[in-house]
Amino acid sequence: MDCAVRKGSETSRRRVDKRGSYKVFPDQSSKMRIRIEAVIRRIPKGKVSTYGAVARAAGFPGAARQVAQVLSRGFGLPWQRVLGAGGEIKLRGDSAIEQRLRLEAEGVRFRGRRADMKQCEFKYPCG
Questions:
Q1: Residue 78: which CATH number?
Q2: What is the number of structural domains in the chain?
Q3: pLDDT recorded at residue 20
Q4: What domain range is 112 assigned to?
Q5: What pLDDT sits at residue 74?
Q6: Quick one: 121 exposed, middle or buried, by C-beta within 10 A (0-12, 13-18, 19+)?
């Protein structure tokens, strides 16, 4: 069983809309933001994670878009360490170039346009 989905946990009682996207309610948004920020801060230098993995580790599977939203509004977060599925940089233009340069400076290796996830992916521990 995936470490983010346990019986009786908050994740098993999540609210999902018809498309399968995670639905955020006002009473939940600040708690969600704080948990997502804490998970992002745990990614060590030289490692990367994906939006989906961050959402699962925070206890909100299916909330990858909310992770992107937290990153766009957050201050002081290691935003460059969060990538799209498969290690793809999802930003465009100068921001994408800056993200890649920051990651390369931290020692993250790339295979073409994607980060080498086999070598550089940060695996969140269960529990």
A1: 1.10.10.10
A2: 1
A3: 58
A4: 17-119
A5: 86
A6: middle
The pair phi, psi for residue 114, each rounded to 5°, is -115, 150
Residue 3 within any structural domain of the chain: no
- The overall average pLDDT reported for the chain is 85
Phi, psi of 111, rounded to the nearest 5 degrees: -115, 95
Domain assignment present for 10: no
Buried b (16+ CB within 10 A) or exposed e, 39-57: bbeebeeebbbbbbbbbbb
Q: What is the pLDDT of residues 50-97, one digit of tens each?
A: 999 999 999 999 999 999 999 999 899 999 999 999 999 999 999 999
Query: Is 77 inside a domain boundary?
Result: yes
